[in-house]
Amino acid sequence: MTLLTPSSPAPALVVPENYLNESFSLRSWLLTTDHKRIAILYMLSITFFFALGGLAATLMRLELLTPHSTMVSDDTYNKLFTIHGVIMVWLFLIPSIPTTLGNFLIPMMIGARDLAFPRLNLLSWYLFMIGGTFILVMLLFGGVDTGWTFYPPLSTSRVHTYVILTAAGVFVTGFSSIATGLNFIVTVHTMRCPGMTWHRLPLFIWSHYATSIVLVMATPVLAITLALIAVERIFHVGIFDPAYGGDPILFEHLFWFYSHPAVYIMILPSFAVVSEIITCFSRKNIFGYAFVAYASISIALIGFLVWGHHMFVSGQSTYAGLTFSLLSFLVAVPSAIKVFNWTATLYKGSITFQTPMLYILGFIGLFTVGGLTGLFLAALPIDVHVNNTYFIVAHFHYIMVGGAVMAYLGGIHFWFPKMFGKLFPTWLSQLAAITIFLGFNLTFFPQFVVGYLGMPRRYHHYAPEFQIYNVLSTAGASILLVGYVLPLIYLLWAMRYGPAAGPNPWRATGLEWQTPSPPPTHNFEHIPIVARGPYDYLEEKPQNA
Amino acid sequence: MNRTFQLFPDAASRMSHQVDHLFWYLMLWSALLTVGVAGLILTFAVRYRARPGHRQGFLGPHHALEWTWTFATLAIFLSFFFWGADLYIGESAAPAGAMEIHVVGKQWMWKIQHPEGRREINELHVPVNRPVKLILASQDVIHGFYVPAFRIKQDVVPGRYANTWFQPTRPGTYHLFCSQYCGTEHSAMTGTVYVLEPADYAAWLAGMPTAVSEVQAGAQLFVQYSCHTCHGQQAPTLAGLYMSRVPLSDGSTVLADEAYLRESILYPAAKIVAGYPPIMPSYHNQLSEEQLFALIAYIKALRGASATQPATTPPGLVGEPPTTNPTGNPITNPQGIP
Amino acid sequence: MPEAARHLPPTLAMQFEDPLQQHEASTLGMWTFLATEILFFGGLFVSYTVFRLAYPETWHTGSHHLLEWAGATNTGVLLASSLAVALAVHFAEHQRRTALLLSLASALLLGFVFLGIKGIEYHSEYMEQLVPGINFNPAHDPSGRLQLFFFFYFVMTALHALHMLVGIGLLGFLLYHAGRGHFTVPGANTNAVEIIGLYWHFVDCVWIFLFPLLYLVR
Amino acid sequence: MTQSPNTWHSTRRPSSGLLIINFILLLVLLVLTIWLAHLDLQPYNGLLALSIAVLKTLLVALIFMHLGFSTKVTWVFALAGVVWLGIFFALSLTDYISRGWAPRMDNISPAIEFIPPPPGIHSHPVVDQSENPGPPAHGSAG
Fold first, then answer.
1. How far does B267 lie from chain C, in Å, by closest CA?
2. Would you kindly state where each structural domain of chain C is located, as residue ranges?
3. What is the helix (H) or strand (E) element at residue A441, kind and residue range?
């Protein structure tokens, strides 16, 4: 976007006051209402939880090297995959891009000084940390072994682990999600700067708007469902366990009404990141702006109509199965549209392979595989065969790790210079991106094969003929681990020792690049006035960096 | 099974081949799309890489192209749906004349009852080429009955019956897995399915001469729990009940299938038969799932009896008289099971 | 717009350009929150419907155990409190401090009356041994299904009462600030009165549905 | 309806008179719903009670909550929750309502030899229904 009012100050020798050096006390961080500082707080928190969830995954993969129990007991194994799921879903993937990149960038991209409700934003982080603390306490007490899906009557009447504490943690974290989503929705509606019409919004904003709809509309149902699980465990009466006259399938409906849309909470923000990065590094306008924008919204809406495809073998009626299958194929169409549009964006571009772009090209490939295997799962008879096998595990890891985590890392690399004003080492980061791509495929592709062979998920012991694939998978996981540790090291290094980035090292067009790096506390000296749509790379003029 | 390396699973039932055909159809399209997208990305990446003298072009909106690929993908996806739906509907009901086997899942084993009385744990013996219908119940939590070689899977939810069926086409031994996480030893809740030639199956069935058939077991329970002291007198007779339409006290009718029989034993007050006092006690928490199966098998076996005593059957109870021979016994065995 | 600054009421938050923008943000924020509340209660309403369709007779029986007069009175009490809150918004916007205080106080009082009547009901149900998980007497219904009706009754009304408690707290907050005249000085920011009013009306609407769904099952 | 002197919003607001009329209407509807509940209008009792509840909610939303005086955006926000609740209901109940329609495994003769029943079932004649009238349905079982 071109500003009528240029706001970038002339380069100065001393570091100008910005959101990072404005004050240094712990209190100034813990009581901050600055969306940028809250984004940093979130980033630190979810990195910690990602490491924790990754540790659980590492232990599982090591255990699965052999078909029989070698390292951990049945109970421990069950706790490991439960904890891995709970932490990765609610403490990493759901908050990942929205609360870090979204929090940091949404106000800047729409030309606002902050979100509409800065204090609510801080409250959201505190709720997240309280929920996270519940989960940590649960871990210290000895964990939980229901699976992240909490299916009753196992979760309500059978297991003797810390189900209520875990549910309480997720419940509280849910309100943090709701607060974030509400804040984003209201911000996008009311805080756009003059001239920033809906059709001039960066696609980052469209995707986050769609994400927020899902956050706000789905999460409350999870909250009430988990509350009902807790009530049933405490009072030994309830609506899920057949022993009390309840219906376990009702739980599945309530749970997946949230948890399927939750998948879109994880992937829609990745779409946001991809659209920004792919345009920047091919120096092109996005192909089919309106289609990409409305595809996000339609994914958010249709995403609410497909939850029953998790229940094709649960005993729901044949007709419901058919309905949900049809709707699931429909929701795949807008995702396909996005992939086609991104590919077309490269056409006639001027493409550079900077680190963020490598992540994003990897994303498109992995997301395509993840999306297409989703079609196998929407096809009823194939789902009957592969439901609850490693085929599903591979499918959703292609979407969540190959998709969401790749996009998250790509986004972190893309906006790192903006957030911290520093550049990171190029070749090392490119090496890390390629390592992650290769390690990821080696980890999860064999799981498609072993899944179609019939290896059920959540299996501690497995049949010997599945071993070769598990060994491959574990080998890939160790490469993946290296790939994840590398950015952690060099980004921390670059935060301190990296060369200064300047306001716009990638020569990108968004409003966020028109402020200094790191940005000043209230983002803009003057609220900008926008006169053009996003991604006008063609008319770009050389900018002073 | 027992192989150390496999790339594609055994296909040992009629359905498995049909599922695999659909699988390869999706595979074909997926490969085309993946290769197409990846190929385009690589081509563009090379051809339009930034280099001295190269400048990007401008590409405006192209609605025709957008709508073309939107509707093309939609059409392809819908072909997946219709093919899948067709198979699924076919899969949802067992063909007439399938043999019925009762399966009870509990933490952490599969208990299987053959109508002839043989019982097995974590093993299932079936004859080749005969459709087999499984009626499944769970005693505690949700389990999943999964035989990869047959491409069938069915969650077994406590408190209700689940059905699935298959028609094995190749003798052999195949994995049986629990596919729904069910607690500590979930991964040990596995077993083996033996598909036998008919003669071997007959020999296997005869291998336990002392076995009490499920109907006989049910008959014994019927006496043991004193069901016979009321049913046929101040309570409705059960002869011919199965698959009839039962008039209820609220004026509606209900089909007396397995689910109804189960509910009426466990929660008799839920559906009161028209014209009878609601005096039956609940057998909730008193009968195991296996005992319920036996009782229901017995009640189902009583279906011909109504013809012998039409005068004593309350009017309307037998809405759809089952096909039976007039003497009431024995019912012809259509499948010729020994 | 930038040059309109520096003459704004002190209650305009930093991130907003003008009062209208802040007002729009706060009302849209509250409506969004109410949408989440609809879905929060929605999980219970969907479950309720599933079981009511499955066991209509049990629901009929269960409904007759409830005190219809209490439910009806409470509906009236809540409607009256909603009127009081709506008037409070009106008076705040017209800067009538005494009338604002009176209407807020009566809304608060009616909120307590509602909870008092609810307490009487809970007590009577407790004495009849109708509280699942605490003292439900299986003799009421050997099939165990009446317990489900009362499970819904208690969970739904308790969740509603919890919302009432929050609402009463918020009304107390308004009353405190109204007493100090914060809403009735010229140019004052009355958004708080309006959005807390929205919340209160929503809680009223939930009860409007709970009343026929629990007390009037025929 | 009056133009509010407040500078914090630009929309019109209901007058206090309208608020009071609305309240009276709500009370009338309350009395109506209780009265209808005591009539036997099966199977329409539930439907009527719910319709009145919807009507009451509409009155509260339109007038007390100013929705009738608000912008289109507010309408969209207010309706969103209801629409999503509708989705939730529609698709959950799709399953529950169609459970009974599933293709059934009817008309299968059991592949079981007929076993003569134990004594006590066929040997005793069934007592005639008229001699043994049962009490009305849902009493407790013995």
1. 5
2. 44-215
3. helix A426-453
Is residue A70 within 8 A of residue A481, CB to CB? The reply is no
- Parallel/antiparallel/unpaired status of strands B172-178 and B162-166: unpaired
Quick check: is B58 in a domain?
no
Model-level ipTM above the cut of 0.90:
no
Query: What sign results for the dihedral spanned by CA atoms B212, B214, B215, B221?
Result: positive
What CA–CA distance (Å, rounded) separates C141 from A327?
42
Two structure tokens written together for A11: 């380069």
Burial of A180 (0-12, 13-18, 19+ CB in 10 A): buried
**Position A10 in a domain:** no
* Domain presence at residue B280: yes
Q: pLDDT tens digits for C74-133?
A: 999 999 999 999 999 999 988 899 999 999 999 999 999 999 999 999 999 999 999 998
| Average pLDDT estimate for A379-386 | 95
Confidence of residue D136 (pLDDT cuts 50, 70, 90): very low
**Amino acid at residue number B37:** V
Q: Tell me: the pLDDT tens digits for A108-160?
A: 999 999 999 999 999 999 999 999 999 999 999 999 999 999 999 999 988 99
Q: Do B83 and B153 lie in a common domain? A: yes
Backbone angles phi, psi at B30, to 5 degrees: -60, -45
The reply to whether C27 touches chain A by the CB within 8 Å rule is no
Q: Which two tokens stand for residue B299?
A: 């009640």
User: What is the model's pLDDT at position D110?
Assistant: 34
Distance CA B7, CA B5 (A): 7
Q: Is the model's pLDDT at D123 over the cut of 70? A: no
CB-CB contact of A475 with A446 (8 Å):
no
Domain count, chain A: 1
Distance CA A135, CA A123 (A): 18
DSSP run (H or E) holding A125: helix A118-141
C-proximal residues of A, 200-259, CB under 8 Å: 216-221, 223-225, 228, 231, 234-239, 244-247, 250, 253-254, 257
Domain ranges, ordered by start, for chain D: 16-97
Same domain, B172 and B285: no
> Cα separations (Å) of B242 from B102, B220, B257, C207, D111?
17, 19, 6, 45, 14
- B123: in domain: yes
pLDDT at D20 over 50: yes
**Is there a contact between D113 and B219 if contact means CB atoms under 8 Å apart?**
no
Over residues A168-220, the pLDDT tens digits come to 999 999 999 999 999 999 999 999 999 999 999 999 999 999 999 999 999 99
For B195, the 3-state DSSP assignment is strand
Half-sphere exposure of A58 (CA within 13 A, CB side): 12
Q: Report CA Rg, chain C.
A: 21
Nearest CA to B93 among A452, D104, A244, A464?
D104
Q: pTM for this one? A: 0.89
Contact between A189 and D73 using a beta-carbon 8 Å cutoff: yes
- For the stretch A410-454, pLDDT in tens is 999 999 999 999 999 999 999 999 999 999 999 999 999 999 999
Contact between D127 and B233 using a beta-carbon 8 Å cutoff: yes
CATH number at residue B153: 2.60.40.420
Its domain, for residue B272, covers 214-312
Decide if A273 contacts A407 (C-beta within 8 A). Answer: yes
Residue A203 lies in a domain: yes
SS3 content of chain C, % helix, strand, coil (to 5): 75, 0, 25
Which tokens belong to D55?
């009507």
Same-domain check for residues B266 and B132: no
pLDDT for the residue numbered B2? 52
CATH number at C44-215? 1.20.120.80
Q: What is the pLDDT of residues A76-98, one digit of tens each?
A: 999 999 999 999 999 999 999 99
Answer whether A324 touches D (CB < 8 Å).
Answer: yes
CATH number of the domain that residue A428 is part of: 1.20.210.10
